[in-house]
Write a structure and sequence with these properties.
Layout: H1 6-14, E1 16-19, H2 25-36, E2 46-47, E3 50-52, E4 61-64, H3 71-75, H4 83-90, E5 100-111, E6 116-119, E7 133-134, E8 137-138, E9 143-148, E10 159-161, H5 179-182, E11 194-195, E12 203-207, E13 212-214, E14 222-232, H6 245-250, H7 253-259
Antiparallel strand pairs: 1-12, 2-3, 3-4, 4-5, 5-14, 6-13, 7-8, 9-12, 9-14, 10-11, 10-13
The chain binds 2-oxoglutaric acid.
Residues 108, 116, 146, 159, 212-214, 227 line the site of 2-oxoglutaric acid.
Amino acid sequence: MSKHDIQDYLFDLNGFLMLKNAIDGNLLADLNHAFDNFPELEFMQWWGEVQRLDNHKRAGMELQNIVAGGKPFETLIDHPSWIDRIRRYCGEYETWIPGLFIDECFATIRRTGGFFAMHSGGHERAIRNQYGYADGRWQCGQVNILLALTDIGPGDGGTRIIPGSHKSNFAHPIFDTSYSERFKGDDEVVEGSFTVTMKAGDALLFSDALSHGAAARTNPGERRAIIYRYGPGWGRTRYGYQYSRELLDRVTPAQRAILEPIVPRIPGEARGLGHD
Ligand SMILES: O=C(O)CCC(=O)C(=O)O
């Protein structure tokens, strides 16, 4: 009998999974409440330990390091709806160095006119976000959770993916045109892709090696989502955010092990001396 379930099979085959109702109504309400109270920030402006750092003007407003944005965001660090799967897919599971870290985490708000040009794919062969499975174990470099806080239907600016592209040997022809050039348009037509529809509270789990982006938001209003990108515990965060001592002390030991999987060894400091 296989030790893999149907979700494992589909993740390997397609490079993504849909986790329906991944969070409950209370957490969904708390997260939306937090979004309601985000201040208006300029690009690069800090709000505590959170920084507005949009990937691209067209993609929408992105608040990076959102794990430091309050309790509901801390709850997502090791949420039971995904954390065991994430550990198995990219946490050096059943090796001598098991553990996870958060490569990047941000809140995103996409309003009318926003879209996200396609990027990534198995052909890139970057180790950081590679898809890997060998000898009965996953060895992915980066696996993402995209959590919908609003319903995402047609015209809402949903995530666009090419199923199976995490294993692609060839670059999709859309990549013949540069990333920044494609952002100049209002949207793009990507043969072989589809746009994911989600209900608020659903989570899309996907290998970052999957070619992905997002369709244009043509409807009024806004799409709200949170993205947590996980990788093996020896990695470093994409943008170099450092967590404050207050945050590290506040979260649970299991959550801290994800935020700080390798405790710094600093001469004269007690931390990092043992195998705790
Ligand atoms: O906003 C989305 O749906 C996709 C985001 C994305 O492509 C990314 O963050 O790499």
